[in-house]
Fold:
Amino acid sequence: MTEKNLSIKKKGMTVLLLSFAIYAAAVCGLVIGIQKNWLLFGISLFFICTTWLLWPGLKVIKPQEALVLTLFGKYVGTLKEPGFYFVNPFCTAVNPAARTRLRQSGDITKETTQMAAMSAAEAATKKISLKIMTLDNNRQKINDCLGNPVEIGIAVTWKVHDTAKAVFQVDNYKEFLSLQCDSALRNIVRIYPYDIAPNVDTTGDGMADEGSLRGSSEIVAARIRDEIQQRVQEAGLEILEARITHLAYAPEIAAVMLQRQQASAIIDARKMIVDGAVGMVEMALEHLSEKEVVTLDEERKAAMVSNLLVVLCGNHDAQPVINTGSLY
Structure:
C-alpha cells in the first residue's frame, strides 16, 4: 500500500463558524416556532440534533504530524500539511501504535500515569508523529564470534517515512521496530569479537582482519543501521542512525577478562622493556669499543650484559656493588 496525500482545502474554521451560526438560528427558530409555527419548530429541532455531527470532521494538524484516515474500512488518504481541516465526519483516524509506550524520546510514559489522562489524550495520539525519534533499546546479553557473552545496548534514530505502510503493513510499527532492532543487533554482534582476535573474518571476504566491537564501533554501528533499515523498509520507517550506547563483558566473565587484559598489558610492557634494554646494552658495548675506554673479553662482556639487563629490566632501583677484586 502506498501513501496518498490528501490535498483538500482547509475549511475547518468555516465549518465551525457555520455550525455555530446554524445552532444560533435553530435556537431562534425553536423559540419562534413553538409559539407560531410547528413546522419551523420541527426543522429547528432537527438542526439542533444533527449539526453536531459536523464536529467529528474537524481535524487540527500540527507541524510534523500526520493523520491517516479511513472511511468504512477503506483507506482515504493522509493529512500531512499543518492546518485546520474539515473532512467527512464518518472518516476514522487510524494509529495502531497510539497506546504503545517504548523507551524513546517523546513517547515515555510512567506506569503510574492515570488512564483518565490517557483517554483525554487519545484523540491526539491517533496522529502519527513525523518527527525524528530516538529509540533507546534495552541492553542485551549476546555471545560474540568467540563465544564470550557481552552486554550491548544501542540507540536508534528513526522516523516514519510512509504513513500508509506504517499503519497497514504491520500490526504495530513501534513494536515491530523494537523487535527488529533486537534481531539485527544479535546478527551483527555475533560476527565480531569483543577485542581484536587472530584468524577472525568480520567482513566476509575470507581474509582475517582486525575488526572488533570495541575498536570498530563506527563500522559496527553502520552495519547495524543498514541491517535494521533493510528489515523495516516494508513498514515505512527510515533509520537515520544507530549508535552503541553500552558495551561491556557480561558480569560472569568480566573479572576473568580483566585479568586477561592485565596480563596482556604486562606482557606487552615487558616486551617493550626488554627490547629497549637490549638496544641500550648493544649501544653501550659499541661505544666502549669505539672509544677504547676498556678492553673486555667475552666473559667480561657477558657479565656486563647480564648486569645491565638486570638493572634495566628490574622493577626496583638498582643496588650498586663495588668490586675491589678481579673476576679471575
